[in-house]
Amino acid sequence: MRVLAVVPLPPPFTGPENATALLLGGDHPFELSLINTNYRRTPEGRGTPGLAGAVSLARLIVLLLARLILWRPRVVYYSITATRLGWLRDSAVIALSRLFGARLLLHFRGGHFGFFLMDTDPLTRFIVRASLTLAQSVIVQAERLRPMFSGLVKNVYVLPNPAPVFPEAPYPRPRRVLFVGHLSHAKGYTTLLRAVPLVLREVPDARFAIAGWPKRRETNIFRDATTGERLKPEDPDEVFRTEIAERGLSDCLEFYRAVQGDEKTRLFLSTRVFVLPSYSEGFSVALAEAMSAGLPCVITPVGAGPEIIAEGEEGFFVQPGDHIGLAERIVLLLKDDALAEKTGRAARERAKRFSPDAVRRIFWNIIEETAK
């Protein structure tokens, strides 16, 4: 069976690209052909219109038509978006794939598709709904995210993100707190910045490693997934200035952009606590990586989080925007070596179900069901 994957691949080395590369790596029980939808080498400028995007769309349509006509795939596997601009491309890919007889397996990596449909304009909403009726299947990243596509696509499957398997590292680990993701309000970066002074008051030798690209303008996350309320984004640079720089705390933070290979392994294995205080998530790749590395995790109850973390077992939950609660749980894990080790080991054990091989087997079954 021939499967055409029209997906984002690295670079940039961010969550969706890394997860897709892991999922489609290794051996497969079908013929696989790839079309990379990425045209930027960094996440900067993603989701904004421009000439480069128009050229990339034209190139994608040409490549897609060539594969559909000459290669005749049975299934087209395609990653959809939750932006108006993105659905210009998504609707074209979906329509052309069905026109040439391919069956469609869509994949949405996120937890905010319902909010997107609710907030978008009537024309875009019509295009999205009409396009989704052409698909045979869609993948979401957690059971609790199935309702996003209820009544829109016949078959809704759940597929967690795969995570690399990290080597074991001894405990206790250095008092470092790790955040991986866009440096944005929606990702919880500003919440973490507000928590830093509170943590340092209790644990003066704590250090914070922050890995990600700045994102000063939100392009797709506009609501708190726990309440449905509209976000009121803070300027990350301004929060850094008032909470960190003016307090003389800059030396306590280490900043990275994309971390890969040995650098990523070193960073994850030399960390005590992982935090991700997001307002919205699907299945965070960084969370799965942190669990695989044996880190206790402090996260918000959004996306797949409540399905893979149990309170007090693999980590702890805080509400989005609660910097005081975030600081309290970070301090707890930095001060209590035994608790950090216990929850870290539990997280590592839980992460085994997200190994690349385990997730690929689920993916293959979904492909087979879609092809029927």
The number of helices is: 13
Overall shape: globular
- What do we call the CATH homologous superfamily of the largest domain? Glycogen Phosphorylase B
Order of helices and strands: EHEHEHEHHEEEHEHEHEHEHEHHH
List its salient traits.
372 residues, Rossmann fold, 6-stranded parallel beta sheet
Would you write up a description of this structure?
This protein is α/β, with parallel strands linked by helices and 372 residues long. It folds into two domains: 2-161 and 355-371, Rossmann fold (3-Layer(aba) Sandwich), CATH 3.40.50; 176-354, Glycogen Phosphorylase B (Rossmann fold). 41% of the residues lie in helices and 15% in strands. The protein has 13 helices and twelve strands. The strands form two sheets. A six-stranded parallel sheet has the order 2-1-3-4-5-6, with helices on both faces. It has a six-stranded parallel sheet with strand order 9-8-7-10-11-12, sandwiched between helices. Strand 7 (176-180), helix 6 (189-202) and strand 8 (207-211) form a beta-alpha-beta unit. The model has no long low-confidence stretch (mean pLDDT 96).
